[in-house]
Write a structure and sequence with these properties.
Radius of gyration of chain A: 23 Å
Strand content of chain B: 15-25%
Structural class of chain A: mainly alpha
CATH class of chain B: Alpha Beta
Order of helices and strands of chain A: EEEHHHHHEEHHHHHHEEEHHHHH
Strand order of the largest sheet of chain A: 1-2-3
CATH topology of chain B: Rossmann fold
Strand content of chain A: 5-15%
Largest interface: A-B, 39 and 40 residues
Low-confidence stretches of chain B: none
Distance between the termini of chain A: 27 Å
Mean pLDDT of chain B: 88
Strand order of the largest sheet of chain B: 2-1-3-4-5
Largest sheet of chain A: 3 strands, antiparallel
Number of domains of chain B: 1
CATH architecture of chain B: 3-Layer(aba) Sandwich
CATH class of the largest domain in chain A: Mainly Alpha
Order of helices and strands of chain B: HEHEEHEHEH
Number of strands of chain B: 5
Number of domains of chain A: 2
Helix content of chain A: 40-55%
Distance between the termini of chain B: 10 Å
CATH superfamily of the largest domain in chain A: Cytochrome-c3 Hydrogenase, chain B
Shape of chain B: globular
Oligomer: heterodimer
Number of helices of chain B: 5
Chain lengths: 398, 137
Amino acid sequence: MNEKKVVIPIGPYHPLQEEPEFFKLYCDGEIVRDVVWESGYNHRGIEKVCEGKSYDQVTFVVERICGICSTSHPFAYVNAVEDIVSIDVPTRAKYIRSIIGELERIHSHLLWLGLAGHFIGYNTVFMWAWKYREPILDISEMVTGNRNHYAMFKAGGVRRDIENEYIPEIRKVMNKLKPKIDLFVGAVMDDPVIHSRTKGIGVLTKEDIKEFHALGPTARASGIAIDVRKDDPYAAYPLVKWKVITFDEGDVFAKVKVRLLEFYESISIIEQCLKGLEKEKNSPIEIKIKTIPPGEGIGRHEAPRGEVFHYVRSDGTNRPIRHKIRAPSFMNVPTFRASCIGQTVSDVTLILAAVDPCYCCTERLLTLYDWETGKKTMTFNDLIKLSHAKTARVMKKR
Amino acid sequence: MGIKEYCFKKSLWVFHIAASPCNNCDIEILDCLTPRYDIERFGMLLTGSIKHADVLLVTGMVNKKAKKRVKELYDQVPKPCVVVAVGTCPSSGILFKESYNFAGPLDKVIPVDVYIPGCPPKPEAIIAGIVKFLNKK
């Protein structure tokens, strides 16, 4: 690193984002030349905790990976377990799962929209977005019993039914939300300040997306129509009509647009699912799974931020022997190497926030293996050896 | 009225420490500040600097990497201050106590004044917790 460059540390505890993470910006004047990201403030060893719990308990553990996308992880996990058992859940359960998944997408996108507004300096957008998010949380509370961490999912179906008496109330809230989204769309599309702050900023090209394997709205804003709900349909998504929203620009503005237009798709999916629920009156909501055979399964779900991937291996006992989780931010956050470098410091905050990073999801332990020799590239013991070697060097100099 | 009571009489400024949480308590804290609950009416502000804070809201099970930082932050707060453990994680550790990265519940790291259980606690519960503490003084 060039010595002339100024280093700006951001974090780990800072008012910008609610999660602890550490960014180091190497700047040349106003221009950012390099970004270093350090994580680990949030690592809780969830994969290991999961391996000590029974299949039924794991749904609650994976829910606590992340508070914003607290349905995405159980969704992917139950898909993985059902992949091992190879069963198909009842249609009513599928509809309920999709409704909860989409409710979560709406509240997560509203949360992001508010925070993005706050980063630009539009605190009005922040307050409005969070105000209109509350009715969605109220529905969640009514239907599932909790504002977040719904505990609705279960391998083989869902834990609770959405009573048919709740359906008119959900419809009412959805109808009320639509004009509010129109308002946001109008505000974003017409405002010259938002245009000048977000257009052409932090551009990710198609090649960048492919190189970093970015997912979700980040990829869709760069013209790649990747969406697990369409590519590998599950739950009620093949039963309803909706479309994948893509834009070609790849800048922050495109990411805002993708998320804004996804609100309409989510609302339409929920409405179609509610119709489906009314048709499927008094049908079962779960299949009892007695034993889980040895084998392995994968489950995927399109979380608000992209594809969540869960891998579960079973040896026939009542607890998984391996549980691997990969969250979308794990792929999305490193794109800052392509989008931040060469931008000004004031834009970098917005670019870092534009991928909607979720560090709680991302904090997994990673070990790299050398492709040719098959050895671990750097173990803890190697690090200790390095440290010992340095001490020896320092002592020699004295 | 002692100096301690006088300090907490008006406009509490809040600093938020996320000691490896799942985000949910943090969002509920932000929820308190936004229009539905709006505790900013009472002069409560989320401050960016620890040196301006009266109240520390700590969320999350404290992991090994965060433990040192939490201690350091606590040393920097002007005293007297109130430390609030928001959620069950900092109070007891719940399911994370089996984790290899668990560094003890919050009260093993810094002294805690208020415990607000819940996963996550509702915004009403967070507000009620602070009010209870202030009335006790």
